Amino acid sequence: MALTASPVSQALLLDLQALDTKIAQLTHRAKALPQHAAIAALTAEIEALRVVALEQSGAREDVQIELGRIESDVTVVAARIKRDTDRAQSSTSAKDAQAFEHELANLAKRQYALEEIELSVMEKLEEREAALAVTTGKIDALRAQIQVIVDERDADLGVLETEIAGATADRSTIAATIPADLLALYEKQRARYGVGASHLRYGVSSASGVKLLENEMQEIRAAAPDAVIMCASSEAILVRTKESGI
Fold it and tell me: Of the candidates 112, 113, 115, 107, which has an alpha carbon nearest to the alpha carbon of residue 67?
């Protein structure tokens, strides 16, 4: 049995379709806000810098290990110098004193060489720490920039979500007044083809923008006012009004 519904009920489908179109447009705008792309781009920059920071942190750690090893060597040499100095001072043997003097001279050279290396490594460590600090600073600056954009995005989303909520509430109110079978058909066609109802205005289907042929218009004119007619070009419910040109 062909579906029927009063012209008033069918006309309500146009209001429903208008709201569904509005909701879809608002949802698309929410997803396409420029802040989304900006945040993604800045986040990608941060990820790239985090890789650099990780490498720089590893390089700094290597230098710290190297410095620790040299400092340990310096400590060992200093201890040996103190020990030999104490022994030389307490020794009564001229031969031992000469040996200690020779040993101390070699230890002094070793200490000087190690301290020079230590100074060089400390400078290298400062360079590594400075490079890491620069990268970390860039990351912090980007994060601050992202937060500003996130705040802007959330504000814009808040406006759009309020509009979507209002349109959704209006849709629910209208949908509740439409016969269940007619609403089910509308929802089915909208899910399949993207549009559930099409306004026939002066012989043109609003959903497809296609002008109906004369024989199609004749069939529509002959149909009962409560007959539910489908649009051949859009597969949506074709709603007739005073503007249909029938």
Answer: 115
Burial of 198 (0-12, 13-18, 19+ CB in 10 A): buried
Half-sphere exposure (Cβ direction) of 119: Cα atoms closer than 13 Å: 6
What are the boundaries of each domain within the chain? Answer: 7-14+179-244, 33-175
Cα–Cα distance, 237 to 203 (Å, whole number): 15
Task: Decide: 81 and 107 in contact? Cβ < 8 Å.
Answer: yes
Is the pLDDT reported for residue 95 higher than 90?
no
Of 86-95, 109-118, 206-215, least confident by mean pLDDT is: 86-95
At 229, the amino acid letter reads I
Q: Tell which CATH architecture fits domain 33-175.
A: Orthogonal Bundle (1.10)
Contact 226, 8 (CB under 8 A): no
| pTM score, whole prediction | 0.77
Mean pLDDT (the chain) is 95
In tens, the pLDDT along 132-179 reads 999 999 999 999 999 999 999 999 999 999 999 999 999 999 999 999
Q: Is 134 exposed, middle or buried (0-12, 13-18, 19+ CB in 10 A)?
A: middle
Task: Indicate if the pLDDT at residue 88 is higher than 80.
Answer: no
Checking phi first, is residue 4 left (phi over 0); if not, alpha (psi -120 to 50) or beta? beta
In the beta sheet, which residues pair with residue 201? 204
Close Cβ partners of 136 (under 8 Å, ≥ 6 residues apart): 53
Give the three-state DSSP class for 177: coil
